[in-house]
Design goal:
- By secondary structure, this protein is an alpha+beta fold.
- The protein has two domains: about 100 residues, Ribosomal Protein S4 Delta 41, Chain A, domain 1; about 80 residues, RNA-binding S4 domain (Structural Genomics Hypothetical 15.5 Kd Protein In mrcA-pckA Intergenic Region, Chain A, Roll).
- Helix content is about 50%, strand content about 10%.
- Strands 2-1-3-5-4 form a five-stranded antiparallel β-sheet.
- Strand 4 and strand 5 form a beta hairpin.
- The radius of gyration is 18 Å and the shape is globular.
- The N and C termini lie far apart (about 35 Å).
- The N terminus is likely disordered.
């Protein structure tokens, strides 16, 4: 577990931003925030970081986006290709593909403190969409879908119980309920607040 936590710390420090990989309010999250501007590695590595080329800057934004959603390069490339194939705003299509993953929806709805925690809930069969068990974290939800926990005992998991009894999460496209959530709209760019320059991500993949 210690190695996993260290890896998450290094990922965030490598990108210089909070990637939402740690549970807010915990000691480990506080320690991370205190060292967020200190990149990992020796002084030469830190010096190289400050002299990135245009390609290097685009690469860093792409890596940052992957780490926020904890998805593979293959999956990110797939989302980009699909976004390009659709008519309209490529950035919007890419954001919607990422945001409507079931693991991200649980996180946005406030039913998990991090996307990694949400992913575990899905993978272990705790989640249902429209009453049907979903155990694939990359499952994409759609308008009017209802997300719930399949078992009562899931709601008794300490951190879930605290989240369910807390304040409603302010996510405009998700209608929050005590026992679940409903997708009432699709994400838009005005509401998207992740610390990533999506244009640079699009530019990176467009060159491949």
């Amino acid at each position: 577990m210690g190695r996993i936590l260290m890896k998450k710390n290094k990922q965030a420090r490598r990108e210089g931003v909070d990637l939402s990989l740690k549970t807010p309010g915990t000691k480990s999250h506080t320690r991370l925030l205190a060292r967020l501007n200190v990149p990992p590695g020796n002084k030469s590595v830190r010096k190289i970081r400050s002299k990135l080329s245009d390609y290097g800057i685009q690469l860093r934004e792409k890596q940052k986006l992957k780490r926020i959603y904890a998805i593979s390069e293959a999956m990110m490339s797939k989302y980009f290709r699909k976004a390009v194939e659709k008519k309209g705003n490529t950035i919007l299509h890419l954001v919607q593909s990422l945001e409507t993953r079931i693991d991200n929806v649980l996180y946005r709805a406030g039913f998990a403190p991090t996307r990694n925690a949400a992913r575990q809930l899905v993978a272990h069969g705790h989640v249902a969409v429209n009453g049907k068990k979903i155990d694939v974290p990359s499952y994409v939800v759609d308008l009017k879908d209802i997300i719930t926990f399949r078992k009562k005992k899931t709601k008794e998991i300490p951190y879930i119980k605290v989240l369910l009894e807390g304040e409603e999460k302010n996510t405009p496209w998700i209608k929050w309920k005590k026992d679940g959530a409903e997708i009432i709209d699709l994400p838009n760019l005005d509401e998207y607040k992740e610390p990533v320059d999506m244009l640079l991500v699009i530019e990176f993949y467009s060159k491949l």
